[in-house]
Amino acid sequence: MGAKGGIFLYADSTDKLLILFGTLGSIGDGMSTPLTMIILSGVINVYGSSEFADTSFANHEVDKFGLRLLCVAIGTAISASIEGICWTRTAERQTSRMRTEYLKSVLNQEVAYFDNQVGSSTNFQVISGFFSDAQSIHDVMAEKSRFSLQHPIKENILFGKEGAPMELVVSTAKAANAHKFITKLPDGYDTQVGQSGVKLSGGQKQRIAIARALLKDPRILLLDEATSSLDAKSERKVQEALDEASLGRTTIIIAHRLATIRKANTIVVLQLGRVIESGSHDKLIQINNGEGGAYFRMLKLQQSSMLTEEASLSYPPLEARSHCRQSSSQSPQNPVSARSSGQSSPSYPFSPALSFSGPQSFDMHPNDQSVDKYLAKSSHLPHSQWHLVQMIAPEWKRSLLGCLGAIGAGSIQPFNAYCLGSLVSVYLLKDNSKIKSDTDFFCFIFLSLAVFSFITNLLQHYDFSVTGECLTKRVREKVLCKCAHL
Fold it and tell me: What transmembrane ranges does the database entry give (predicted)?
């Protein structure tokens, strides 16, 4: 993959050629300004010469210098295009290799690498961000893709891979356990399912969504609450479809029903963001000399909760709303959140990123008043820019120096343009001694501008950088204090 260090660490021979041409384009682009100044100085020399009175000669010189400026403009455009295309292309190629290497290193990490002591949804976002070729069942569920269900079933499945042959559509439908009920419909795969899929049940919609995801044949399958909001019969059919879809690929499951992850190769139990148990279902229920651990207790709790689910549904709505305060949207009868993963291929007995988590605490409330107080306390207006200005008050001296440097650096360009315009009139003078003295004066002015530009830019960037570092450090400390006291 190229050299073992430096900027060529992830560059191959093609990237090196792109870097070479990009560098040449950068040099050509950078030469545009000095070349333009040389041409303009020639124009000034011609206008200041005694032959300027000859109109025909002056027009000829104007055409000559105009052609030179046009050539410089064309060369600059070509150089800038080569510079941008080559550097952008090699950056994309090398970035892709960096991400591949990073993904390989991530896949070799322990499960705790993914656990940043937050909820399962954030961990799911982290994992899904690593795997760009993964297809989330949760994101293509029927309830979240209502517009697509206005089309026939075949077109719904083809949303996963447009232009796929009908044989592939049928095979993926069979893999998703959806082919049987589709063929029983009046028009089969051409059946119109109506607005928002009103003619299909929730389980049928989810199986179509599974078929849509499998049509892409993803290597990594992310299942986020794929069997939520289903009855027992529909859940069993969807679970069979998911088991079939998981064959031959890595599957990461995020679910609140522990029954859906019993077949996972590895289940990880989290407590306060830390891994406390890890293993298969059978191993976790046999630990501690057969008495089980946290996973076994949560499994028993969920089984007992399922027995009282029907009675819980008959509670008044007010009491049902005030049962707990937590970030999860699950009901108290099903409070367990789980993340697991399995690899059905025998060559991959364990998946590198598997986790399971449950809620950390529940607060019982007799009514909604405490919830309202909590929401009112947590809601606030976003901080304004003035608040950030107040946070950099300890560095007000550096901020003032940085502002003065920025003002000075900004005033250089207009003053430099004024001096350049005034310099042209010097070449039109008749007195050679006057021309020499004025030229020396403007040379001194330009030299002073260069020194002043160096000082002001140094002052501006240094002071603003130090102020920004102090502000960033202060903000991070405040965020850390807030997180530590949660």
Answer: 404-429, 441-459
